[in-house]
Design brief:
Elements lengths: L9 H4 L8 H21 L6 H20 L4 H4 L4 H14 L10 H8 L3 H10 L5 H31 L15
Helix pairs in contact: 2-3, 2-8, 3-8, 5-8, 7-8
Length: about 180
Amino acid sequence: MARHVSRPGAAARTAMPDDEDPIARHCRRLVRRQALKAAAVSALPVAGVDLFINGPLLAQTIGAISLAHGLAPEQLARLPAPLRRRVDDLAHGLGSYLIGRVLTQGVLVAALRPLGVRLGAQQAAKFAPLLGQAASALLSGWMFKRLCERHIVQCRAVRAALPALPAPPLPPEDGT
């Protein structure tokens, strides 16, 4: 008989179905678009250029996800100190380096550290013609999407654990 093993974050993922969470739907649409851009840049046969372009793209996307969930640094700065500390404690408990942080190069490097081996493989794959470029694009898009999806799950978990947080702004209705 097979045992079902629960993965970390699975409870946060099922806390609210996406059908009922327009913020998560909006963020996932954004992540899909940005991951495609990251993959397209990574398909370029120039080693390193994707790091210079995808780094700011990742920072912008993570910032947009935090903002949509009401967990951007400027939004948290307006909260009372005890509530800010609770958000910070929850974020640390979830293993998040990104919630409520200004996204500097150091913060992004810390968040990407668990994906480091894959990042090295993605850069090395560029040196094989055509197939290597396709593999590089695939790995880059996957890593981008995975990191952003993890951030969405962590933001949702913080919001679910702290109902006292002010309501986040409504996502735009025009499909962006």
